[in-house]
Amino acid sequence: MRLKNKVALITGGNSGIGLATARRFREEGARVAIIGRNQETLEQAAQILGSDSLSMTADVSDMVAIEAAIKRTVEVFGKLDVVFANAGITMPTPLGNSTFEIFDNILRVNVTSVFFLIQACLPHLNEGASLILNGSVQSYNGRPGWSAYAASKSAVRTMARVLASELSPRGIRVNVVTPGSVDTPLLDSAISNYGEREPFIQKLEAAIPLGRIGHPDEVANAVLFLASDESSFVQATEIVVDGGASSAFAGAPIYR
Known about the structure:
The chain is α/β, with parallel strands linked by helices. The chain has a single domain (7-182, 215-245), classed as 3-Layer(aba) Sandwich (Rossmann fold), CATH 3.40.50.720. The protein is 43% helix and 17% strand. The chain is built from 8 helices and 7 strands; from the N terminus they run βαβαβαβαβαβαααβ. A 7-stranded parallel beta sheet has the order 3-2-1-4-5-6-7, with helices on both faces. α3 (63-77) packs parallel to α4.
């Protein structure tokens, strides 16, 4: 088991990539604490994860609640070995038709809360712990109308490099997993701005060399690698899980 006796904390662990990762961590022997905003899906996730798991309701932008959740995790399981800062939000912010409040909220949830989550975890991290931040290919694909989300994920990627520099003396690794189009509730929230699901999915798949969108488990496997000792010399880097969309886009079905 690749994570035997390790303790992991996952934000947004009640659905999508977060839940898929929590399941993989449990399968590999980790004790897992998940944080989410939706009590109903948290309860469902707790049933899936079973024993040696902990689910807590908190908004990542509420640092009082997050600090309480971290404290509870340490009380139940001991120090932290893995933190997956997965929670995030998305919403279009087209130039000329966006509000300050929406733009600011995206940055606050996707960037500021990630930094202060890591800072709050800092006293509880074992030497050699692994921190994984969730990025997005939106940080460099220039998709129109998504400035705030793209900026937030670019910030996550560059922040990870700084955190890695600061934490390397303790042997703590900081890396980023960068999903492309993956079938998650977050993708559904983006689709709602464009109309029907199937036509939108087909449009996405036409631009992906592998010809399909991804599954949460496929991202979870990359997170598992970064969390495990198998990646012990992987530091301040990014693993892109997007079916080739950002690196080999000329091989996508739309160009064939």
